[in-house]
Design goal:
The chain is of the alpha+beta class. Helices cover 41% and strands 24% of the residues. Strands 2-1-7-3-4-5-6 form a seven-stranded mixed β-sheet, sandwiched between helices. The longest helix is centred in the N-terminal third of the chain and has 14 residues. The termini are close together.
């Protein structure tokens, strides 16, 4: 069942993915409590698993209850996620895909998504790779739930896609889409 999305504000500079995980858990999970202590606990466990790509540890936890599809533009990151998945003994099957606006739209038609984008297009202040929850698309705008500010933000499609383009070209990071369905 898809509930309202609780938007959490991260307590640490590195907690964006962990807070996105918590938002998804609260939307689809039963009685999921989340606070600063839980953020720090999950961060410690995740970074103990792999300090470079800790996301598969939390994706593994989502797989317990939900359908998760991982799309990554970088072939190297696909390989890295596969190797980390093997270490976890889970069924994450990342797929190499050049992501389009349609891919992001489809992810919210069937559920929600955790995505990586350039934060500059959210606050027009600084460029850095940042995880957010993509929760809706309508009237030519995407809705993201930003753990940095703890707010829901509506972004015009063109600015949203510019954040993905900037992630690729300015920050040299691979766009990643983690689509979640109940």
């Amino acid at each position: 069942m898809k509930n309202e999305l609780n938007t959490y504000k991260q307590a640490t500079p590195f907690g964006c993915f962990i807070n996105c995980y918590a938002m998804i858990k609260s939307r689809y999970g039963k009685d999921f409590d989340f606070d600063k202590e839980k953020e720090l606990e999950l961060m410690e466990r995740s970074f103990r698993f792999d300090r470079e790509s800790y996301e598969p540890y939390l994706i593994d936890k989502l797989l317990d209850e939900l359908t998760v599809n991982v799309f990554i533009e970088s072939e190297y990151l696909v390989w890295k996620y596969e190797k980390l998945s093997e270490r976890l003994g889970n069924t994450i099957e990342p797929r190499h895909k050049i992501l389009s606006a349609q891919d992001y739209r489809e992810s919210v038609e069937t559920g929600s998504a955790i995505i990586l984008l350039d934060k500059y297009n959210l606050d027009m202040y600084t460029h850095f790779a940042h995880w957010v929850v993509l929760s809706d698309h309508k009237d030519g705008e995407f809705t993201v739930n930003d753990p940095w500010t703890g707010r829901e933000i509506r972004i015009p499609r063109s600015r949203f896609m510019n954040s993905i383009k900037s992630l690729r070209n300015t920050l040299n990071c691979s766009p990643i889409l983690i689509a979640v369905e109940n």
